[in-house]
Amino acid sequence: xxxxxxxxxxxxMSGEALLGELSHGIDPKIISTIARQIVExxxxxxxxxxxxxxxxxxxxxxxxxxxxxRSTADYMGMLATVINSMALQNGLEAFGLQTRVQSAIxxxxxxxxxxxxxAIRHLEKGRVVIFAGGTGNPYFTTDTAGVLRxxxxxxxxxxxxxxxDGIYDKxxxxxxxxxxxxxLSYNDFLRQHLKVMDxxxxxxxxxxxxxxxxxxxxxEGNIMRALLGEDVGTRVHG
Length: 238
Description:
By secondary structure, the chain is α/β, with parallel strands linked by helices.
């Protein structure tokens, strides 16, 4: 087996990735697919942290656009990420991995509070740490939470794991002629207003020189390919 290119990674997953063939909720088969991939990564001795969105259950931004108070909607979205984190934790532990869920909002019955030093210690002990609750503040996305946690725990790269195999110049679902990028600079990403990640998250990556790799989570083996530096997805860097 080749040596992994990175020793500590954070995987930012969209909540929608957990849908599978469902219209809403969580597909247990997708959880198992993700868990198997993370088991393979952990066998190489890599530290793995995860941030997951909640869009498969509740989208705060959409609810706010339809008239709900934005803060209330965002807090509801944060709670949705706790549900997804618990589901993923259960899936990982079914494969024998040790895990911890840390939440930015207090839900002490089901998750630890987020404490940076404790999170790093869990990683050093070989546990997978799942960060729930976003940043704990409204008006910030889970993409921004992912970058924030990545910087706090000192990862080598942020894996943005989606349902698409990279970044395109336009929506590949509705535009068959869409062009896929192999690499992008932070400036090019921001200048083109690409929607794979929000601008705040990408700007934070730029300011802290944190590379991003965007790839399709649902192709089994892609996390390992990304870890080994194979040609997968789109890399965003300085």
